[in-house]
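Structure tokens please, single chain.
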Amino acid sequence: MQLQVARIGKPHGIRGEVTVQVLTDAPEARFVPGAEFHVEPAKFGPLTVSSARWNKDILLLGFEQVADRNRAEEIRGAKLFVETEELDDDGEEGWYEHELVGLEARVGGQVVGKVTALNTMPAQDLLVIEGADGKEILVPFVEEIVPEVNPEDGYVLLTPPPGLFELNSADEGEADGPEGNGAGA
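Here you go.
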């Protein structure tokens, strides 16, 4: 199984280095010289790390296959993947986006939407939920608000505080779904 660990950002300098958006908890272990990544789109890969360094809070990578800024600009936006035999099975942390996308979002017994993405943020991750009305809702992916993730039965259980759906909705909307959420919490 392939697991996305980074997305390539803009070029840095003239020697082919690029910034990367890190999507792994262990960048020091993953991004070392000699590490090879599958790339999406496939026409840009595979890529082999030749150098890795931090510039403040930004990881800069050099690849053996990228010699200059022009080539670095071509691979901008590409996704880097590693091959994994099995996923974390420690139970507490270790949910990957592909395990969450498509799960029903429930408050109590009521389905309030579907998980469409996981935004990995510096402070905390956010579940992106598409509500029944089609609006995007951002939900902090913390145990207090998402106490249960059940991929076998196809759902995540939410216990949002009152007003969370209205506050974190991309657009102010109808109150029928969120009112039910407050009652179920």
